[in-house]
Design a protein that fits this description.
- The protein has 221 residues and is of the alpha/beta class.
- The protein contains 6 helices and 8 strands; from the N terminus they run αββββαβαβααβαβ.
- Strands 3-1-2-8-7-4-6-5 form an 8-stranded mixed sheet, with helices on both faces.
- The chain is globular and about 45 Å long.
Amino acid sequence: MSAAIALKKQDPASEIRFRCTLCKVLFIDPEDGQGGPARCPICDSVGRFDSNFSNHQIDRMVSFTGSHGVGKTTSVLDKGRELKISLPHRTVGVLSENVIDSPYPINQQTTPESQLWIYTNQIQAELKFLSKYDVTVCDRTALDAVAYSYVAGFGQMASAMFDLFRSHCHVYGQIYFKTVRRNNYLVSDGIRDSSDSKFQAAVETVLLQLYQKLGVRIVLI
């Protein structure tokens, strides 16, 4: 049993995907369906094993996306370590979040300048890492900034950012969406806003809608 678990943690192709029978999204069940029916982390409907999904190709960029306080950074560090162990002859880069480096206000005090800085900085950093490493594990996607911009009320700017993202989204080989329902990491750390769960939920809702509008494949975890 321990050998099987170790193999699963080190093999990026071993994850079992399920597809929700209601909202049709892909997701990973923490117990791989062994603890009862695999249930969607968004609508709680039963999921079915997706035999058509193939993850045997090593992706150039693996990204973790979602609202704040869902443990993206923790997952990024774990995945970076996992990939380096399983791909010892490849270079693996870990791209950390850039929000803490913003010279402008963040959270619900954000400004158009702040969102534009975060968005453009994210795209530049992703392109830089793609040129330097065989595989990059990324803490969020540039679309995260678009969702926050919409929630902040910067609709016109967010729409322009979304249109630009269409020409950039091909760089993501695999996108894991960390859901609020399954990942309770919303704690006060001096950076993120941990006092407003409605704000957190609003960002998640908009971000999911944006991925659906793009038709980009994501895996819910």
